[in-house]
Design brief:
This protein has 6 helices and 2 strands, in the order H-H-E-E-H-H-H-H. The protein is mainly α and 198 residues long. It has 2 domains: 108 residues, no CATH class; 51 residues, no CATH class. The radius of gyration is 20 Å and the shape is globular. It comes from Aegilops tauschii subsp. strangulata. This is Glucose-methanol-choline oxidoreductase C-terminal domain-containing protein. It holds the Pfam family GMC_oxred_C.
């Protein structure tokens, strides 16, 4: 969790001062954030799409990335459905074994603690528990498994060789049109192993 928090600082802004500021701000988070875990609602195969634009040919320049989270209304409905499902799960007797002896926290408190955890750089609203739609918008994250920025057939061929260049392949998550349902590390490693044999 704490590493994830630090990763919300943009790479070019990661300095020793920024790390110290993060440590100071971390102390203002609800203590419960660091004494438990998170249950996430994942939207597999979102209908919303974004885009990535190179600003120049300098490999050190960051591209302009537009995620367009929840641009398609069905994605927002799926997120709300996921949060409602989580609420049902944490309300079960079985789950009560994992909550404090006083009966746990209300859903309102859990939602507001999640927003306070600052898991992304999106500006927050003061009381996200009043709207699950707003909660979804304020807490959306990619889980750091970016994909789709280097399309097979457009940027690389079927053997992952860069079209128009010799001796260069791209074998990473950017070539995936859909992210695997879990951490893509094993998938990418196998792609690398078998792609270099051709």
């Amino acid at each position: 969790m704490q590493i994830g928090q630090l990763s919300t600082i943009p790479p070019k802004d990661r300095s020793l001062e920024a790390v110290h500021k993060y440590v100071r701000n971390k102390n203002s988070l609800p203590k419960e954030v660091f004494h438990g875990g998170f249950i996430l609602s994942k939207i597999d195969g979102p209908l919303s799409t974004g885009n990535l634009v190179l600003v120049d040919t300098d490999p050190n320049s960051n591209p302009i990335v537009t995620f367009n989270y929840f641009k398609h209304p069905q994605d927002l409905r799926r997120c709300v459905y996921g949060i409602k499902t989580i609420e049902k799960i944490i309300s079960t007797n079985t789950f009560s074994n994992f909550t404090p002896k006083d009966g746990g926290y209300s859903m309102e408190k859990l939602l507001n603690m999640s927003v306070a955890a600052n898991i992304n750089l999106i500006p927050k609203h003061t009381d996200d528990s009043t709207s699950l739609e707003q909660f979804c918008r304020d807490t959306v994250v990619t889980i750091w498994h970016y994909h789709g920025g280097c399309h097979v057939g457009k940027v690389v061929d079927q053997q992952y060789k860069v079209i128009g260049a010799s001796g260069l392949r791209v074998i990473d998550g950017s070539t995936l049109s859909r992210s695997p349902g879990t951490n893509p590390q094993a998938t990418v490693m196998m792609m690398g192993r078998y792609s270099t044999e051709t």
